[in-house]
Here is the input.
Amino acid sequence: MTRLMNRYASLAVLVAAGLLSACGDKTVQTLAEAPLASSRVRFFNFGVNAPSVNFYADETKMTAVVSTTGTESTTGIGYGGVSAGGDYSAIAPGTHTLAGKIAAATDKDLAISTSSQNIEDGKYYSFYMSGLYNTTTKTVDNFVVEDAFSPPPDINTATVRFVNAIFNANPMTLYVKSTTSGAEVPIGSAVAYKGAGAFVNIPAGSYDISTRYNGVTTNALSRTGVSFNGGHVYTITARGDITVAPTTTGCASSNKTCLDNTANR
Here is the structure.
């Protein structure tokens, strides 16, 4: 019995030695994780009458809604929606084809809005589907703006800028009026369709906001009770069809003109 056990032990040593010999002196390789891309992009569906879409960068799906069954929902991001609840998605620097593709089963994955965009390292961007959806060609306009913001200087300050996504509106200036002091200030100057104004620092607080055309004292659009929290950055975007009566209490899921408020950070 002892002799048999010694024989098995000797065989085990020989097998182990053979395995070590086959491995040689190589060490275990450690695979480094690829760094997360430092550039960012987010997507808005502000195309009037446009269907719900999923957004893509080249062939990579950047947004999608998952259903309770575990498969992709055909709901997508509807009019007035923004990807990831307003958050940005990481994207590698370089030239990309950004697109909104139909999410519904009918015309599934048909690209209705595309744009070639150079994404620079470390920069942030917003892609807007905009304009009026053409039901014949199944296309809708779009534009991309760089979100070149910096954090506010302190927790008592908010940063705000204005984007004009209304295809049939003249250039407008955004004004913010404090609900506490009544003081009103412009946020930059007039911004044309597809344009973005500069980021402006204002005291944090509650504001009534409005837009006006050059040389006009009456409001083109307005919204009451908008909160700008200290230490945060916001983009106010005018969207909708200027011929449709506006809403002043928020942005309902309709084609009415309104002032959308989405935080950048």
Q: What stands out?
A: The chain has one helix and 17 strands. Residues 37-148 form one domain. Confidence is low (pLDDT under 50) at residues 1-33.
